[in-house]
Amino acid sequence: MRFDHERIPERVVHARGSGAFGKFTLFESAEDVTYAPVLTDTSRETPVFVRFSTVLGSRGSADTVRDVRGFAVKFYTEEGNWDIVGNNIPVFFIQDAIKFPDVIHAGKPEPHNEVPQAQTAHNNFWDFQYVEPVRNLSMTMTNLSRFLHTEATHMFMWTQSDRAIPRSYRMMQGFGVNTFTLLNAKGDRHFVKFIWTPELGVHSFVWDEALKLAGQGM
């Protein structure tokens, strides 16, 4: 509750982003897993709004920073509004929700100078992850596996990959955060995760491109 009520200027999660209105048209009924008309009635056109954003930067941060991209799809159905939230990476830094304020506070910019913006590359983040210093470049990943938060390791590897600098929101894969319980007309229950795959394919910037587009000097 304390974290939810935090409203420190320029330190709100997902402060920087873009949005788009559109419509959802169903091509094939999913009546085998649900009786919800939005996913079974192929004659419907459902208005939607999609929010895309980086996670850690302020409103003034660049769009090409190395950061997780979040999104939310709001379906304005005839039965009511339905929100599905997700990220462009299928795993996350934590498994215990009580650690969420900790990982966000660790990743946010330094409070005295507001840098870096969204890059998650300062000491606070590494203190959270707690990687032993590399003193020998020949050390293997086995030698680097002493962490306070071992569950963060997988996500860390994703954020250091090209997935953290997508070329466009139209070229970004999306993975729903929540697992939904859906019922079909027979009352059968199914656990469902939603995944978005772009028709243009998944493409990313190279690091040099991302830096230059963010305003780095030559």
Task: State the gist of this model.
With 218 residues, this protein is an alpha+beta fold. It has 4 helices and 8 strands. The model is unreliable at 132-146 (pLDDT under 50).
Structure, described:
The chain is α+β, with helices and mostly antiparallel strands. It contains four helices and eight strands. β3 and β4 form a beta hairpin. α1 packs antiparallel against α2. About 7% of the residues have low confidence.
Features:
218 residues, alpha+beta, six-stranded antiparallel beta sheet, 14% helix
The radius of gyration is: 20 Å
Count of alpha/pi helices:
4
Structural class: alpha+beta
Shape: globular
What is the N-to-C succession of helices and strands? EEEEHHHEEEEH
Poorly predicted spans: 132-146
Q: What summary fits the major beta sheet?
A: 6 strands, antiparallel
Percent of residues in helices comes to 10-25%
What separation lies between the terminal Cα atoms?
Answer: 45 Å
Strands, count: 8
Query: Average pLDDT across residues?
Result: 86
- Beta-strand content estimate: 15-25%
Strand order of the largest sheet: 1-2-3-4-5-8
